[in-house]
Design goal:
The chain is of the alpha+beta class and 225 residues long. It contains three helices and nine strands, in the order H-H-H-E-E-E-E-E-E-E-E-E.
């Protein structure tokens, strides 16, 4: 190829790029060389520089301040929360009596045997055990409870102790005063019923009352003061 033919090729390339058919963009937007041709770096498309976005965040000092504030709040609140959740004294006695009544009723229904809630004056002991006759034997095979029934799981025991600072003001079973008895027993039956039972106890923290509904055998708690 002579010099004249080479010049013709360059002229044709320049006219082709001006016509807007060049694949890399419009002629005005492309940088050109001194001969009028597109710059070699732009022949395969314009290279765009990606824009960087700034995401807001927290500094280390801000995080340390937040952690310090949370630590102070937790240190001040945990002791009071622990005292509120911890049951002691009057609240513990009320909770133990309610749990004992609920346990005796549930075990009587599940096992098909009458159960007894026993409250002993000496030591303030509370226990749940199967009902016993006057001779001390279990009554599961006596009277109306001697019917043949499918085997059921044996009843589970329960025991608790009232705190020494709790004193009993009223203790009645079937509307009879039991304050002078060393041991009081309240019966729960498989049909969900129970004896009438009322107990009022108090301490320096206040006074509570726990009673039973004879029809349902459910325990109710009441704050006296």
């Amino acid at each position: 190829m002579n010099l004249r033919d080479f010049h013709a090729v360059l002229t044709w390339s320049s006219d082709f790029s001006r016509s807007g058919r060049y694949e890399c963009g419009t002629p005005n937007s492309l940088p050109r060389t001194s001969e009028g041709l597109p710059h070699p770096r732009q022949r395969r498309g314009a290279v765009r520089t990606p824009r960087t976005t700034h995401v807001p965040g927290f500094t280390l000092i801000e995080l340390m301040v937040v952690v310090g504030i949370l630590s102070i709040v937790l240190a001040m609140g945990i002791p009071s929360i622990a005292r509120a959740l911890k049951k002691e004294g009057l609240r513990k006695g009320e909770s133990d009596l309610m749990e004992a009544c609920s346990h005796a009723r549930a075990q009587s229904i599940l096992s098909g045997l009458p159960m007894e809630l026993a409250i002993r004056a000496q030591g303030g002991q509370i226990s749940v055990e199967p009902l016993k006759n006057m001779d001390g034997h279990n009554s599961s095979t006596a009277g109306e409870f001697s019917e043949v029934t499918p085997p059921r799981p044996p009843p589970k025991s329960f025991s608790a102790t009232l705190d020494d600072d709790i004193a009993i003001r009223v203790l009645a079973v079937n509307f009879k005063d039991q304050m002078e008895f060393p041991e009081v027993r309240v019966r729960f039956f498989p049909n969900g019923t129970s004896d009438e039972f009322t107990i009022m106890f108090f301490s320096a923290q206040g006074e509570r009352k726990v009673s039973l509904d004879v029809v349902t055998g459910l325990a109710n708690s009441q704050i006296i003061r």
